[in-house]
């Protein structure tokens, strides 16, 4: 498909600077901008690329002020990154989607699948499960008994949703995600470990995205809950009885221990480890590879292991680099003190 700058500006309610007839038929990164494509500038670190890019149209923020001439047509919008997301979503919606139920799929007689969806090769849907309208269940997905899935949710290949779990509308579960596996619960007994049955479930609310090979354990009792709008990257572990607040985002390889409650609108970097039975306040930002072992107040910005306020972490990092020289200086001073003691 091909679009002009004028058509795109009308769709985004943006302002054009340059050729209104400029045409694009694809997207490219600004550092690799190709003729006939649209790119964007949202991060100031990439500004130098805009002066040499070959892309036909560049989305920029309204407050962008170029320091040199630009050959491309600029399309000004309030938020270039959000505008790009809108365009990509529009293009995705125009692509042909598979529909219907493949004859090789297994759907239990008591299960219900809503109209307008897709169930692929060898997908499995168990007894009494309810799948909403417009859902896309890709090949080899497993949906157990008594599962509920809302409208327009996508379940990619090899996703496993255990019995009794609930997934909301407009969710995306990427390949290999596991929802409702047993929580890691064992009671020490006579030198061994006795398994504690995990009788709860997982509840995923609307508009949640779960990355590839991410696992969300079912609760011992009641529910492990992923609230509306949460975005989980690949390879994340959510333990039993965890609560993740609305619109919180987590990068890859985060681990959240049992019964921890994470607030709303939190941002958690890659490889962060959260201890069990703690509370992370709303709006908290946690830097990559941090270790969290106690409660964190709302609005905090922390980093390190164990985590500390961000400014303290940076000061500590500077000091840490100086430790070898400090050690040599202290050792020299120690020897001087010993020599002075001998003279006295």
Task: Explain what this protein looks like in three dimensions.
The chain folds into 3 domains: 3-94, Udp-n-acetylmuramoylalanyl-d-glutamate--2,6- Diaminopimelate Ligase, Chain: A, domain 1, CATH 3.40.1390.10; 101-308, UDP N-Acetylglucosamine Acyltransferase, domain 1 (3 Solenoid), CATH 2.160.10.10; 309-343. The strands form 6 sheets. It has a 12-stranded mixed sheet. With 344 residues, it is α/β, with parallel strands linked by helices. The radius of gyration is 26 Å and the shape is flat. The relative contact order is 0.05. 18% of the residues lie in helices and 30% in strands.
Rounded to an integer in angstroms, the radius of gyration calculated over CA atoms is 26 Å
Architecture of the largest domain in CATH? Answer: 3 Solenoid
Q: How confident is the prediction overall: mean pLDDT?
A: 95
Main sheet strand line-up:
8-11-14-17-20-25-28-31-34-37-39-40
> Which structural class should the secondary elements be placed in?
alpha/beta
Summarize the structure.
The chain has 344 residues and is an alpha/beta fold.
What is the topological layout?
Elements: E1 3-4, H1 5-12, E2 15-17, E3 23-24, E4 26-27, E5 37-41, H2 47-50, E6 57-61, E7 73-77, H3 80-94, E8 100-101, E9 106-107, E10 112-113, E11 118-119, E12 124-125, E13 130-131, E14 136-137, E15 142-143, E16 148-149, E17 154-155, E18 160-161, E19 166-167, E20 172-173, E21 178-181, E22 186-189, E23 192-195, E24 201-204, E25 209-210, E26 215-217, E27 223-226, E28 231-232, E29 237-238, E30 243-244, E31 249-250, E32 255-256, E33 261-262, E34 267-268, E35 273-274, E36 279-280, E37 285-286, E38 291-292, E39 301-303, E40 308-309, H4 310-343
Parallel strand pairs: 4-5, 5-6, 6-7, 8-11, 9-12, 10-13, 11-14, 12-15, 13-16, 14-17, 15-18, 16-19, 17-20, 18-21, 19-24, 20-25, 21-26, 24-27, 25-28, 26-29, 27-30, 28-31, 29-32, 30-33, 31-34, 32-35, 33-36, 34-37, 35-38, 37-39
Antiparallel strand pairs: 1-3, 2-7, 22-23, 39-40
